[in-house]
Amino acid sequence: MTKMTGKAILVGLCIGAAALGLDQVSKELATSYATSIVDGLPLLPGFNLVFLRNDGLSFGMFDGMPPWLLITLALAICGWLLATMFRTQSRTEAMGCGMIIGGALGNVFDRIRYGAVTDFLDFYAGTWHWPAFNLADTAILGGVALLILHSLLGVQGKQSDG
């Protein structure tokens, strides 16, 4: 392992731990105020806090799937991303992997505890509501965006990106 690879891994692991920690704290807060926000608590125009449990994947796809199947899938993806993180010399790629791993583990912990994922962020325009989501979902999306940018910008051919 080169010095740069070690730094990239450390960055990725720290980002993943931060994503997981922030997700779990925010979900604990949402759960503790569930009765107050279950019908929606308006905070800003176009943004409410709500309390939902989603037993499917993003946007409620695959509702009713056994939690163990979704947990197994998420853990397999995390394993692959962890292996990728340990091979990369790019901090950007390691950060993207870490964000996805942290977010995925946050949702795995929910599935283990509740059989479903806690969602509480509700954005809307008029009467149209985006499906509620959580900070784990945000970390996953941000991590995927970083990996796509990393790939599109051709950074993989360089020794490092920072």
Properties at a glance:
162 residues, four-stranded antiparallel beta sheet, alpha+beta, 5 helices
Q: How does this structure look, described?
A:
The structure is a single chain. The protein is α+β, with helices and mostly antiparallel strands. Helices cover 60% and strands 14% of the residues. It contains five helices and four strands. The chain has helices at 3-32, 34-37, 67-87, 91-114, 135-152; strands at residues 41-44, 47-54, 117-125, 128-129. It has a four-stranded antiparallel beta sheet with strand order 1-2-3-4. Helix 1 (3-32) runs parallel beside helix 4 (91-114), helix 3 runs antiparallel to helix 4 and helix 4 runs antiparallel to helix 5. The protein is globular and about 50 Å long. The relative contact order is 0.20.
Layout of SSEs?
Layout: H1 3-32, H2 34-37, E1 41-44, E2 47-54, H3 67-87, H4 91-114, E3 117-125, E4 128-129, H5 135-152
Antiparallel strand pairs: 1-2, 2-3, 3-4
Helix pairs in contact: 1-4, 3-4, 4-5
Average residue pLDDT: 90
Let me know the number of strands: 4
Main sheet?
4 strands, antiparallel
Structural class: alpha+beta
- What series of H and E elements makes up the topology? HHEEHHEEH
Number of alpha- plus pi-helical segments: 5
- Poorly predicted runs are 155-160
Helix content percent band? 55-70%
Shape: globular
In angstroms, what is the radius of gyration?
17 Å
Q: State the end-to-end distance.
A: 17 Å
Assess the beta-strand content as a share of residues. Answer: 5-15%
Question: How are the strands of the biggest sheet laid out side by side?
Answer: 1-2-3-4
